[in-house]
Here is the input.
Amino acid sequence: MPRTRYQHSDTPTPLAQLPAAALRAALRESYDRNDLRHDVLAGIVVGVVALPLSMALAIAVGVAPQHGLYTAIIAGFAVALLGGSRLQVTGPTAAFIVVLAPIHIRFGLQGLLLAGFGAGLILVAMGLLRLGRLISYVPHPVTTGFTAGIATVIATLRLKDVLGLQLAGNPQHYWDRLAVMWAARQTTSLTELAVGGTSLLLLIAVPRLTNKLPAPILVLPLMAAATYVLARVAPDFHVATIGSRFHTELAGHVVAGIPQLPPVPLWPFKGLSFELVRELLPSAFAIAMLGAIESLLSAVVADGMARTRHDPDAELIALGVGNLLAPLFGGIAATGAIARTATNVRSGARSPLAAMTHALTILAAVLLFAPAIAYLPMAALAALLLIVAWNMSEVRHFVHTLKVAPKSDVAVLLTCYTLTVLFDMVVSVSVGIVLAALLFMRRMVEVTQVTLSRGQHPDLPHALPDGAIVYDIDGPLFFGAAQKAMGALGSISDHAKVVILRMDAVPVMDVTGLVALESAIERLRANHCLTVISGLAPQPASLLAKSELGKLPHEVLICSDTPSAVAAAEEYLRTR
Here is the structure.
């Protein structure tokens, strides 16, 4: 493991220092030849793991497998180079299948690339606006609902390739696809089922027997070799492979499988119009939000495994740049991949150079082994996606949340899950973000507490003078909580001539809190009741100084502490 760990404080990193923050930090820590050796070896292992996954994920989206490889090469290298996470591995992920597949069905490859490009712009803006830390505050019921719903959709739809179904169409919506699959149930191929079932059993069994190599590295080449031999020995044995399903025309020649070429630049903006941009914008927003959540979650997982710290703003900017570059080379949307990142850590990675090596490993595999990759069975890749779906579903965590979480969290979890399955990720992400905001507002209302004291106050040695009341606020004065905290102030003026508003425990106040405070004090003033504010923290004090309250020294007194406020109240009451 690295001798020193990349740390960051809670103070935001200056913008000029965000690009390549993790790489520069790693190279400053006496990076040597031994570290480079670990990075190269880890990168090769992750690259071999990512190779079939990248193809399987692209196929699940509906595009040719090389588009997934181009994503891992371009975005994987760019985000590792520019990012804020030392050990993050970026590429196509299963979470994007649910949002990308409908885009491809409706708008084709060009729309898919444009949506990814738009998501890149949004991600860069999010990073520049320092929203990285806010993304990590999205509640667990929201993210758990997303991932469980995505896993459900992936698992059910990938049965198509495991069973070898011959579908009559490819509808956009989930339930329509299930209907098409059910209508094609008579086309089930026992041969495809045997290959897919065997692959699935081996992918489950190998990790129980050995953990020296990831299961896909052993299982997928074995199934490719086995189906190749069986096809030669038994002429009636036929299974769909990458080579039989996908073809690319190069210089007038049709190539089976993926082309033996590096990613080449292409121009996805032909025929671009405002109408197309408007239709793709909600999808781009969903891709950006889902990518940000998954990438920063993956970075947190890497931090927990390797005791590192990432810079979320640098990671968002790098992720945005990766998603801007990938479409220019035929790549689809990319984000941090938790499983590949965990493999990177377990393989001994020391710096972002490992993830960069992973991208170069995939590039080398495309250039050297493209003809052999064509023999990978589609059913085996589908079985791999079933394993991915099971792992990301976190069934135990989902059930545990249903059992122990508050009813509001359970309702949010089930809502996000249902919307993901029944509709699509654009609707689910939009509603999920709104629900996250509503949950936050509810929590703020619950966190902020108020206490009204007459006569004796626990923090004062002497009783309060007659006609004085102490009103304690404990917690932030944000929207929602502000109305609760200030609601009782306007109704106590009949019982007091002075209200001492203790704000020692109010760390921060927003404009909604200021407006609520001004309204309550205005009602007190109308009833000839003096307000004395004490114990202001720096942020609320600065906000009050800019407001109308700061211009009313005779109607509103501001004191540094509670004893001073009580003394001011006694002086005021003596003159009345």
